[in-house]
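Posted in: Structural Biology > Protein-Ligand Complexes

Title: Requesting predicted complex, FE2/S2 (inorganic) cluster in pocket

I'd be grateful if someone could produce the 3D structure tokens for the following input. Sequence and ligand are given below.
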Amino acid sequence: MNHSTTCQITLAPLGRVLTVPRGSNLGDAIHELGLEFPCGGKGICGNCKVRLLAGHIALDPLHEAVLKRKKLGPEWRLACLSRVDEDITIEVAQFENIVLADETPFQFTPRAQCGIAVDLGSTTLVSQLLDMESGQVLSVQTALNPQAVYGADIMSRISYALQSPEQAERLTSLIRHTVGAQVEELAAQATRPIGRVRIVGNTVMHHLFCGLDVTPLATYPFESPHNGMVHFTPADLGWQIDASIDITFLPNIGSFVGSDILAGIYAAGMFSSSSPRVLVDLGTNGEIAVGNRDGIACASTAAGPAFEGSNISCGMRASTGAISSITLKEGHHECHVIGSVPAKGICGSGLIDAIYLGVTQGEIDEQGVIRHEPKILPLTDKVHLEQQDIREFQLAKAAVATGVELLLHEQHLTHAEIDKMFIAGGFGNYINLEHATSLGLLEFAPSQIVKLSNSALIGAKMFLFQDDEFINQLVPRTRHISLESNPAFLDTFCQKILFTTH
Ligand code: FES
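-- Reply #1 --
Done. Output follows.
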């Protein structure tokens, strides 16, 4: 018997091997590959299904019942309900074709080519190699954004870049080099010629990758004259791939709303839907889009990076060691930790649960003040929340709720008229919708909300099948709204900062 404390997960046909602590949740282990967990990993939707090709994953009665209800045979498992207790080989069903979060299959015209989609985030990069004939993901690459050593968030990257042309150039060459390494690795595994590489990211990532001046993004109204699509040849970037491959960074919508949101809007079906929809992407900024095929209003909010765990005393991003959810059991906090290891910190979804429990248990008042001394809420031996953490959360949730309300008003809509509200962003996988709605972060009924974890990557893959003209004509169908200049902003913000749980 193997007594190793780790297990290996081999991903077929990608050939990728992940090493994880024995007993890890399979969904946690593979979420960084750009997978969606539409029901939040509760074993309801069946969308995280994997085919078990080698090894054993034990079934409990709940897991067995869901597989039966979903009419999945004995070779299938749901990643969110699976524990990794030995070496396994799996095939991820989501990588077999492109499917939208609302389960509408994406209609694409097959091409005898491969394509590469890149989601260039401020924190992480995910690239996928797609067989454009079958729609199947053939390989995945993930990495942390190496620019992070020069600043955790986009504002600090801008200020670093503004200090000297050499520093700006350093950020550009770092990111080009890292994305290039991923693309070269993927290109080497392509089974057909690669036609194009489509890259999406926020406005700052767009400017830094493309070598554009970030000065306009540093001062009001934060509008750059260079928001368009930018083409490169491999030679322009020094990438060792076939010279005929077209590399495109897709266009921004405006200000801090980049092509990642354009891709998200496309993935959420908002350009074709007749009924109104909302997309909220809670990354380093909070980006919001409201509308339908007749027009979409977009804005970025100064939500700050609280949802990514930054500026929180024990905060961290949603990775191994992060408390991702908390429930109350017999008066005690029961923390779920990503990767089933001792808790090192807390990520955005855990923060929501901790504050929800603090408010509903009467430890935090309506103003957000911890009622007792010392003003600390312990969660585990090592992880706790401080008064300032509650403040950070209040500022972030008020910014998001205010942004949604003002954009709804702009579009002459109410919350109740929204057909679907898509929540995107890394922590969307884990967020407890009842807690988020109850705290006033998302003021929609949980039944209106759809989780669309990496909407940017899904949209980038869909854009591989579309020509430049099609993508460029989407941009004027969106309009960027400056929230801060709206006279109702301050009053709405002050109202949304309070906790009024129901
Ligand atoms: S069943 Fe696993 S994410 Fe929904």
